[in-house]
Amino acid sequence: MTYAIRIHEYGGPEVMKWEELPKPEPKPGEARVKHEAVGLNYIDVYFRNGLYKVPQLPAIIGMEGAGVVDAVGAGVTDVAVGDRVAYASGPIGAYAEMRCIKADRLVKLPDSISADTAAAMMLQGMTAQFLINSCFPVKAGQTIVLHAAAGGVGLILLQWAKYLGATVIGTVSTPEKAELAKSFGADHIVLAHEDLPAAVKKITGGAGVPVVYDSIGRDTFMASLDCLAPRGTMVSFGNASGPVTGVDLGILSAKGSLYVTRPTMNTYTASREDLVHCATSLFDVVAKGAVKININQRYALKDAGQAHSDLEARKTTGSTILLP
What we know:
Layout: E1 2-7, E2 16-21, E3 30-39, H1 42-49, E4 65-72, E5 84-87, E6 98-102, E7 107-108, H2 115-135, E8 143-146, H3 152-163, E9 167-172, H4 175-183, E10 188-191, H5 196-203, E11 209-214, H6 221-227, E12 228-236, H7 250-254, E13 259-261, H8 265-268, H9 272-287, E14 295-300, H10 304-312, E15 319-323
Parallel strand pairs: 8-9, 8-11, 9-10, 11-12, 12-13, 14-15
Antiparallel strand pairs: 1-2, 3-4, 3-6, 3-15, 4-5, 5-7
Helix pairs in contact: 2-3, 2-9, 5-6
């Protein structure tokens, strides 16, 4: 037997239950991973509250984990029993002591990356990788706007942008988070209650920026567009304040022939080749010390409800992991 967090209905953190379940057995093409650490990400909240629908209820949520392969199904060649591995893509099911997952979705960990670090960075780090290298390839000398700069993806993307030679205007919700973002390299900080477009225009001499990375969603969508230079790109990759709906596309032409994209990591890592490239790129910048993974919170996996409460209350910074 093993234990996992399951939801039987959509709702608040209280719907997550710590339950005993039979040990899963790998099917052909699958590997069973005994988790050493599980990542906490805002997408987990969306699956828990029903913004994103699970395939069926009851369900084990969670997108990211790291541990050791302890069994494989028929036909598995990408990993072997005893390999240290991590993953950060669907299907859901990470909030468990062990799980089975398609072996071609697992990435072998280099010796320099611990399970805690991997669980803290795979989803957020690979998200940062495709955002800053593929959705809009940031180049040296550019100025960018990064919302939630003190969050999990934010701190990684911030460091990566500085490594590439960009100037970063970060937004945060509190003075404490402002100090954290500054300590990781943010050049300018704008607090959530301040006029972001006005601040950006002042910093850029009225030019605006070529790209805004926005994980907040509804509350910041229009302000983000107003920060952009003509033909600029808005990368919307989260809904922390709620989803963006009812957008008039004419706004994009009126504000300067703007581009908006709503990417997902599943699309950008759909092939085995893309997945390995994305993960290897992340391992490289972490190994170089260009990106430091900041694990600021650790919770027992059985206390995932409290972790969700703290995440939604914006009490967390950097990365958070759950320990089986």
